[in-house]
Amino acid sequence: MSPVDHYLEQASRSQQAGDWPAALAACRMAAAMAPADPQVQGMLGATLLQMGQAAEALPLLQQAVAKLRRHSGMVATLAQALFSLARYGEEIGRSHV
After folding, report:
1. Average model confidence (pLDDT) for the chain?
2. Contacts for 43-50 with beta carbons within 8 Å, 24 or more apart?
3. For the residues 72-89, what does the mean pLDDT come to?
4. How many degrees, rounded to 5, is the angle at CA 75 between CA 71 and CA 76?
5. For labelling alongside 2, which of 10, 13, 48, 90 has CA 20 to 30 A away?
6. What per-residue confidence (pLDDT) applies to 83?
7. In the chain, what is the straight-line distance between the N-terminal and C-terminal CA atoms, in Å?
8. 79 versus 69: which is more confidently predicted?
9. Which residues contact 30 (CB under 8 A, 6 or more apart)?
């Protein structure tokens, strides 16, 4: 298992346990190693969104969806971020989903 995969797995376990600060820390470690990886961007974006940081999550989720257009979970998380920012109608067309 690569170090990035290790941190993503750690983030996933922390999310499942409801430990969002630990999930965020693990995601940030993965992002430091692979900032352009869409799985990393998506996991970090989803974690930020769950922590109420939709504005910071949005560009990460948009980048992830642009690379993983058929990942329905990622698209749904992007839609949730847009909705929470009251920008769904304005932005969804530009995110190529």
Report:
1. 89
2. 43/8, 43/11, 43/12, 45/77, 45/78, 45/81, 46/15, 46/77, 47/11, 47/15, 47/20, 47/23, 48/24, 49/77, 49/80, 49/81, 49/84, 50/15, 50/20
3. 83
4. 115
5. 48
6. 87
7. 31
8. 79
9. 4, 7, 8, 11, 37, 40, 43, 44
Contacts for 75 with CB less than 8 Å, ≥ 6 apart = 65, 69, 97
**CA torsion sign, 86 to 27 to 18 to 70?**
positive
Which residue's entry shows tokens 């504005």? 55
The three-class DSSP label of residue 1 is coil
Instruction: State the amino acid at position 11 in one-letter form.
Output: A
Please tell me which residue, 63 or 92, carries the higher pLDDT value: 63
Indicate if the pLDDT at residue 69 is higher than 90: no
